[in-house]
Amino acid sequence: MTPHNQAKKDEIAKIVLMPGDPLRAKYIATHYLTDIHCFNTVRNMLGYTGLYQGQTLSIMGSGMGMPSIGIYSYELYTQYDVDTIIRIGSCGALIPSLDLFDVILADSAWSRSTYAQQQSHDANRIQYPTLEINQALKKAANEQNQWLHPCRFHSSDVFYYEAGIDSGALANQCAVVEMESFALFHNAKVTGKKAACLCTVSDSLVTHQETTAQQRETAFDTMAQIALGGSLYV
Ligand SMILES: O=P(O)(O)O[C@H]1O[C@H](CO)[C@@H](O)[C@H]1O
Ligand SMILES: O=c1cc[nH]c(=O)[nH]1
């Protein structure tokens, strides 16, 4: 147990799907897993373990932002022997060619965050997912006839900008913005574990279209199904 997670070690699977929203975790667990068991309610950061096509899998919220996913993912990797975390988030489109509900796969995450610098003196502004997990997700998407858009993410500490879209994100060819992948990829690297990040486009910073809070909780089924399918190839 940790200050943030009441689970015993054997209650969490080797693979964890991790949305920011704990209610998205509950929705996916209750709709797609069988034999589910809720292993964490501390701070309402709900976590579930169950079976997906016979394989044990966990789904747990990360909360919003790098400090939050930094805590939960580090504990999962170092105290619960989790091997792989696949973030299943929402993101804002930074380029006009992306539509609401498109599913995006991070091939890298650029950030101004000091998370990696503070955590391990890692000064890299770009962190990377695990290639083998991205390949598993691409294979699952292919099988499901879904198109996955691989691109660089801007992993930001900010949701509401007074100064407009971060020019550094555009200069670094980021196609979407979200708030966790950089810290997750860093934690996977320093612990010798694996990570990937899928996001569904929930809004566009270009067209200003947006989904509702309810859709962000319960309407990201395409992404969930790709992550669930990919977990079988990990
Ligand atoms: O929907 P989730 O997974 O929380 O992801 C995105 O949504 C939150 C902001 O609304 C941030 O956590 C951002 O990364
Ligand atoms: O961080 C995020 C997530 C979704 N949409 C945004 O605009 N930013």
What are its keywords?
five-stranded mixed barrel, 10 strands, single chain, 33% helix, 234 residues, alpha/beta
What is this structure's SSE topology?
Layout: E1 15-18, H1 22-32, E2 34-40, E3 47-52, E4 55-60, H2 66-79, E5 84-93, E6 103-110, H3 115-120, E7 126-127, H4 131-143, E8 148-155, H5 167-171, E9 174-178, H6 181-191, E10 194-204, H7 213-218, H8 221-231
Parallel strand pairs: 1-4, 1-5, 5-10, 6-8, 8-9
Antiparallel strand pairs: 2-3, 3-4, 5-9, 6-7, 6-10
The site of uracil has 10 residues, from strand 5, strand 9 and strand 10.
Detailed description of the structure:
The protein has 234 residues and is α/β, with parallel strands linked by helices. The chain has a single domain (9-231), classed as Rossmann fold (3-Layer(aba) Sandwich), CATH 3.40.50. The protein contains eight helices and ten strands. The chain has helices at 22-32, 66-79, 115-120, 131-143, 167-171, 181-191, 213-218, 221-231, and strands at 15-18, 34-40, 47-52, 55-60, 84-93, 103-110, 126-127, 148-155, 174-178, 194-204. A five-stranded mixed β-barrel has the order 5-9-8-6-10. Residues 90-92, 159, 177-179, 202-203, 205 line the site of uracil.
